[in-house]
């Protein structure tokens, strides 16, 4: 067990890797009532490859639903009987199962581990779930905000695992079989691919007796890495659709501009540094304390609906800027010009750099107030478990030239798409 | 009879559990539909400008200088009161470089934003006013694209058909937002300052010094007002109001509103809270377990209890064809509550979840501040034994409240296209 003290913030982070390969990270907060625990597998909607075949799109999300449904009980009932609230979510690259509890934390932890470690799939239960997930898919299809975001990603990585809806579609989920679920589970839910993060009034030492009840062996990590490499190639070989327009009932048209940059080549703390630096670059241009943002706002190019999001993962790195506007063309032409100008005349950004650093520090101190916010920021395999407290140190060490150089690398090699819903 | 009462109220909860100090300043007045739009635009303008910080950029940069201090305004309703809130949250000095005195700077900033809005010659600068007016109008219009929000708004306005003031969105009406002038909003600022009750609540390490500094700054306002103390009142519609609307989308939404004559300050409050948790307010509820999990009839279904108004609403996302079945199942679950036709274990489970949810409130500065504000405004003390109160709620007490529920509004947003579509 490893303990790292962050004296300035009066915080400790405890980590260990179990014999079966599962990583465990704990930030004890003795003065809080709630404990938040999240068990994550590095398995998301893009992972549809098995050794000799593919499985239907949406299987990760489908499995997330089905893991709760055991042969003779539902894990949610066990949580509820112990007073916990539980949830789960699936993204492109991960599936996470979580609970929040104020009492019976170790008993709830057992429910979480049982939920993830002991699958039960049957044809009857699969058929029933297809109805519920079908409804969920339709709900997202009706939501213009969800559509503008995911359709823009689909443009950036067309005909790749990233272009499919996270939940799949009605046809793909109808094809999922018991055999698919078991085979996929064995491949991607092996303990070496799992990370448990916990934040609340509990220590790692208190959790260890429960963790030691887990099986001590994992599956085949080499095969897992080979499949992940194949998925990466599937994504990298995809092409960009330069522009799309869709019709949907919206009050004001929704416009999105997407950039696809090169997939990151670094890992560990360097990955975290590049991710933070790219985020700061975008803040320099598009946060409210940027004069560039204010000019765009006052000239009506952007408005209060404007927002941006970037995702940096092992296999991809993209940026999406979006808003509701009656003048999408002005938005589509002005934003790229603004980005180019900022990269060419970086001296304009110097004054704001320190402000953004201050702001990032304050945001992280605020985040430490939340067990959820902290547990979600205890790091991932990809960033070498760089946590919230480490991030402050990285941000303080960053300088403007480094930030600009990382942004240059992204934009120079980037491809663009525009997406309009009207 | 109205009498003079204190108008400005201070409350502080010092303590070092959190790494920030959070302050809420709430301006409260009875909900008047002709003031809603002025409050919305005033909140927007006061969030972004003051005399000293005369641009959005200057405000944002000042907040960044104060180590990412978070500041914002919002409008919301509590019972029959309209609230305009200034909320600020800043990091403790002990965690900042150079031990910066953020507390004094934040108090000065708040004072500037509240007492020196950017009003010149009786109005906000026209260009800024028009820009924000348009943005607020666009924002309110676009909200309806979110069909859950839209259905909720329709339900509210149906429920309050007989008292339309209550049925208004707290964000007001688009036409009236468009017709307001800068001078009207500026004049309303002075009215707000002179007449609203003010509740100042602070939580965190710097709660005491920040309240002391704000007391000095608010000393210039009239400290008393002719008004009855705020209290909750229950009004129920006499008639049932129903509406069906078709929309071009695949899913349908079905919502209901029940009059519930139990308010936050009533003795039966805990019974109503548990009733809602058991009916549809938690993942262990009868609606969730039967209608969603057992019958797969809905993608989501839940109920919400608003104890400041006395209403329970039910929201569901469904395939339109299933609406009659869902409607009768919701009713059937209510009948089970009346007849106490459920297991003791179900009841205990829901109580556990509710207790856990309330215990976790003390981990959130904002939830604590809200609680502090409500208690002070409504003049009640949350009983120290609230856990025991929840545990002691009996099936008979739940049944008694359940029998009093009256369905008074339903809204069905019917998806016009049911054909499954492949992405």
From TrEMBL, chain A:
Q: Where is the Peptidase M16 C-terminal domain?
A: 176-350
Q: What is the lineage of its organism?
A: Bacteria, Bacillati, Bacillota, Bacilli, Lactobacillales
Q: Report the residue ranges that make up the Peptidase M16 N-terminal domain in this protein.
A: 57-167
Looking up InterPro entries in the UniProt record yields: Metalloenz_LuxS/M16, MPP/UQCRC_Complex, Pept_M16_N, Peptidase_M16_C
Which protein are we looking at? Insulinase family protein
Highest taxon listed in the record's lineage? Bacteria
Name a Pfam family for this protein: Peptidase_M16
Automatic annotation (TrEMBL), chain B:
Q: Which SUPFAM superfamilies match?
A: LuxS/MPP-like metallohydrolase (SSF63411)
Pfam families in the record: Peptidase_M16_C (PF05193)
Q: Which residues form the Peptidase M16 C-terminal domain?
A: 179-354
Gene3D superfamilies attached here? Answer: Metalloenzyme, LuxS/M16 peptidase-like (3.30.830.10)
Q: Which InterPro entries match?
A: Metalloenz_LuxS/M16, MPP/UQCRC_Complex, Peptidase_M16_C
User: Could you tell me what this protein is called?
Assistant: Insulinase family protein
Q: Which organism is it from?
A: Fructilactobacillus hinvesii
């Amino acid at each position: 067990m490893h303990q790292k003290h962050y004296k300035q913030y009066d915080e400790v982070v405890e980590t260990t890797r179990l014999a079966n390969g599962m990583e465990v990270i704990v930030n004890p907060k003795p003065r809080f009532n709630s404990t938040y625990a999240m068990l994550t597998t590095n398995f998301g909607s893009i992972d549809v490859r098995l050794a000799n075949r593919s499985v239907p799109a949406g299987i990760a999300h489908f499995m997330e639903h089905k893991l709760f449904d055991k042969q003779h009980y539902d894990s949610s009932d066990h949580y509820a009987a112990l007073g916990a609230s539980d949830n789960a979510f699936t993204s492109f690259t991960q599936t996470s199962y979580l609970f929040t509890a104020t009492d019976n934390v170790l008993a709830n932890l057992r429910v979480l581990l049982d939920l993830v470690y002991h699958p039960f799939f049957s044809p009857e239960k699969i058929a029933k779930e297809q109805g519920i997930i079908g409804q969920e898919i339709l709900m997202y299809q009706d939501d213009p905000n969800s559509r503008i975001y995911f359709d823009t990603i689909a443009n950036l990585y067309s005909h790749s695992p990233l272009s499919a809806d996270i939940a799949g579609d009605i046809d793909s989920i109808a094809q999922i079989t018991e055999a698919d679920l078991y085979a996929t589970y064995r491949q991607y839910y092996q303990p070496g691919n799992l990370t448990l993060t916990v934040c609340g009034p509990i220590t790692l030492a208190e959790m260890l007796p429960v963790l030691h009840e887990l099986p001590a062996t994992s599956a085949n990590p080499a095969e897992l890495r080979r499949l992940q490499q194949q998925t990466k190639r599937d994504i990298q070989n995809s092409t960009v659709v330069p522009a799309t327009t869709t019709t949907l009932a919206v009050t004001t048209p929704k416009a999105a501009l997407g950039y696809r940059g090169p997939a990151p080549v670094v890992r560990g703390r360097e990955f975290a540094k590049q991710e933070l630096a790219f985020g700061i670059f975008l803040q320099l241009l598009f946060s409210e304390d940027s004069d560039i943002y204010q000019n765009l706002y006052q000239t009506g190019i952007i408005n209060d609906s404007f927002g941006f999001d970037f995702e940096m993962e092992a296999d991809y790195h993209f940026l999406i800027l979006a808003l509701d506007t009656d003048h999408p063309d002005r938005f589509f032409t002005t934003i790229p010009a603004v980005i180019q100008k900022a990269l060419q005349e970086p001296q304009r950004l110097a004054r704001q750099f320190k402000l953004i650093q201050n702001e990032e520090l304050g945001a992280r101190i605020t985040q430490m107030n939340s067990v959820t916010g902290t547990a979600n920021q205890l790091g991932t395999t990809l960033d070498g478990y760089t946590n919230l407290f480490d991030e402050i140190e990285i941000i303080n060490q960053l300088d403007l030239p480094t930030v600009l150089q990382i942004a240059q690398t992204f934009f120079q090699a980037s491809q663009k798409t525009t997406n309009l819903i009207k | 009879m109205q009498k003079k009462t204190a108008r400005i109220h201070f409350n502080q909860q010092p303590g070092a559990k959190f790494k920030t100090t959070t302050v809420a300043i709430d301006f409260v007045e009875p909900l008047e539909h002709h003031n809603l739009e002025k409050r919305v635009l005033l909140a927007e303008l006061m969030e972004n400008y003051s005399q000293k910080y005369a641009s959005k950029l200057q405000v944002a940069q000042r907040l960044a200088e104060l180590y990412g201090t978070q500041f914002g305004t919002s409008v919301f309703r509590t019972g029959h009161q309209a609230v305009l809130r200034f909320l600020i949250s800043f990091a403790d000095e002990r965690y900042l470089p150079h031990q910066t005195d953020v507390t004094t700077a934040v108090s000065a900033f708040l004072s500037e934003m509240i007492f020196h809005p950017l009003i010149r010659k009786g109005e906000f600068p026209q260009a800024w006013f028009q820009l924000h007016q348009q943005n607020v109008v666009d924002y309110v219009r676009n909200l309806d694209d979110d069909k859950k929000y839209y259905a909720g708004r329709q339900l509210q306005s149906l429920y309050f058909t007989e008292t339309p003031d209550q049925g208004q969105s707290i964000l007001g009406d688009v036409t009236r937002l468009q017709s307001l002038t800068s001078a009207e909003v500026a004049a309303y600022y002075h009215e707000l300052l002179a007449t609203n009750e003010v509740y100042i609540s602070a939580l965190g390490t710097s709660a005491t010094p920040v309240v002391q500094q704000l007391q000095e700054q608010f000393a210039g306002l009239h400290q008393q007002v002719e008004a009855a103390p705020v209290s909750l009142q229950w009004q129920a519609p006499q008639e049932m109001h129903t509406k069906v609307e078709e929309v071009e989308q695949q899913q349908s939404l079905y919502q209901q509103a029940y009059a519930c004559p139990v308010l936050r300050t009533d003795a039966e409050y805990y019974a109503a809270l548990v009733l809602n948790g058991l009916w549809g307010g938690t993942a262990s509820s009868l609606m969730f377990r039967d209608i969603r999990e057992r019958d797969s009839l809905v993608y989501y279904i839940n109920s919400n209890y608003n104890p400041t108004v006395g209403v329970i609403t039910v929201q569901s996302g469904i395939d339109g064809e299933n609406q009659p079945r869902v409607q009768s199942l919701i009713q059937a679950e209510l009948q089970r509550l009346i007849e106490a036709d459920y297991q003791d274990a179900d009841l205990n489970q829901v109580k556990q979840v509710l207790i856990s949810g309330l215990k976790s409130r003390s981990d959130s500065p904002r939830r604590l501040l809200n609680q502090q504000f409500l208690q002070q405004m409504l003049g009640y003390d949350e009983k120290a034994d609230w856990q025991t109160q929840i545990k002691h709620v009996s099936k008979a007490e739940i049944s008694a409240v359940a029998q009093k529920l009256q369905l008074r509004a339903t809204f069905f947003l019917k998806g016009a296209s049911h054909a499954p579509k492949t992405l």
